[in-house]
Amino acid sequence: MIHILLVSLGIIFLIWSLNLSLKITKKENQKKHNINWKILSGLIFLFIIGYLFDILYLIFIQKTNFRDMLISLVFFAGSIFVSLVINLLYDYIIELKKDKQRIHTQIVELQIISKGIKDKQLELEKTKQKLEIKNKELEDTLEEFYTYRLDIHNKENIKKFEKDNKKLKSKINSLKKSKK
């Protein structure tokens, strides 16, 4: 009687394994792996058929011996092994798919951030170019101012204006150096 119980439990484990294997087959998108999962599902189905024949054998023979008990234990242990392996694979596949989705989301986020950085970089370059143009205009205006100032007061206080001009030029030069 215990023999039939062990093999029956083995069939339950194998049916559960077959169910998981079929779920994996449906979720798997790659043909190469899909074929392997179909083969594995077929083999599990054949094991179930073999277990059923063993139950029929155990039911119709009157006496069971140690060998029958040993075979029942091996069948039961084999079904547990298959169930554990299929369950582990199922869990890993689910986790890998979640990780793949998470990585895809992070890649999209990084692309958005990268685009934002590139946009800011372009904006910074444009601002830098505008600033260089404005600095050039300021330098030209100051140069004209120096010249105009010298022309107006050519004869009066030339030394004083030259001294002031030198101070202004040195200040401009120090600003230029600090800009770089």
What would your notes on this structure say?
By secondary structure, this protein is mainly alpha-helical. 92% of the residues lie in helices and 0% in strands. It has 4 helices and no strands. Helix 3 runs antiparallel to helix 4 (158-179). The longest helix is centred in the middle third of the chain and has 87 residues, at 66-152. The N and C termini lie far apart (93 Å). The model has no long low-confidence stretch (mean pLDDT 84).
Calculate the mean pLDDT score and round it: 84
The main pleated sheet reads as:
none
Radius of gyration: 43 Å
End-to-end Cα distance, whole Å, is 93 Å
Structural class: mainly alpha
The H-and-E topology, N to C, reads as HHHH
Shape, please?
A: rod-shaped
Number of helices: 4
The count of β-strands is: 0
- Uncertain residue ranges: none
Question: What fraction of the residues are assigned to beta strands by DSSP?
Answer: under 5%
How helix-rich are the residues, as a percent range? over 70%
